[in-house]
Known about the structure:
Elements: E1 10-13, E2 27-31, H1 43-53, E3 55-58, H2 67-77, E4 89-92, E5 107-110, E6 118-119, E7 122-129, E8 139-143, H3 144-150, H4 153-161, E9 163-169, E10 174-180, E11 182-184, E12 191-193, E13 211-215, H5 222-233, E14 239-242, E15 249-253, E16 257-261, E17 271-277, E18 283-284, E19 292-293, E20 299-300
Parallel strand pairs: 2-3
Antiparallel strand pairs: 1-2, 3-15, 4-17, 5-16, 6-18, 7-15, 7-17, 8-14, 8-16, 9-10, 9-13, 11-12, 19-20
Amino acid sequence: MRDLNLQSLVTxxxxxxxxxxxxxxxxxxxxxxxxxxVGELPVSWxxxxxxxxxxxxxxxxxxxxxxxxxxxxxxxxxxxxMWPFGAVLELEEHADANDHIFxxxxxxxxxxxxxxxxVPEFQIFQCVNAIEAHQGGRTTFSxxxxxxxxxxxxxxxxxxxxxxxxxxxxxxxxxxxxxxxIGAHPHRQFPxxxxxxxxxxxxSSFINPSTYTFSGIGAGEQATLLDSLNTALHDPRVxxxxxxxxxxxxxxxxxxxxxxxxxFTQRSGRHLRRVHIHSEPPLRNPHVSGVMxxxxxxxxxxx
Length: 303
């Protein structure tokens, strides 16, 4: 930070504590002066912070007045992973949601791009409108590299045998992903976990869940596998639930973290924007095979 002469621009501190405990990853940046814009911070430094801390919260900065401004910034951050709807996903509750992403329900832990032909390295979130803390809606993150570091050997042994197969159909795609629970970071090769958490058992209100199976373990080991994963990934040392403030920007490492969402009060006005950024070079998804199908059956050759 001294070399980049940034000490006069920002303060760097741990993420906000939750229930008296600070997660053992992530950093928060705040401006030293009013009217400091996110775009004044060097992108190379921010990318390095994400690589070393996995999650960077920028709070109190001026930022983007609309999706076009956000897109222009993200194009400077890296190569944007484009969707049929464009660069920016507007994360708002829909009145007649056909998927849990656009409902007010919780979203289980997962990684973005798991069903697509390419997997983004970075996620850039902007909070357009935050809701009150009592209304819920925190975005959750679990640091899988740190979960592996602190896991007991017998737990890691069980995880190392298991491979998850997940199938999901939505408006934009239909595909199956098959991923070992323990793998390697695709570029830097340290151990990480790939796991798609399932909804609460028996929750018939959850819209359009993925289906899943696990191989490599005995039939009697699946309950132990799922219980141990859910316990480890919610350990307060590796799990962070972000309470949004309007204007927050989050930069996150999609190759190392899993993320989800807590449920929130219906029609409360929660509004985030999200952009995906490719790695260099873009990562071809190692967990899918064949041509991705659109939900209507039409092949899709792009993400």
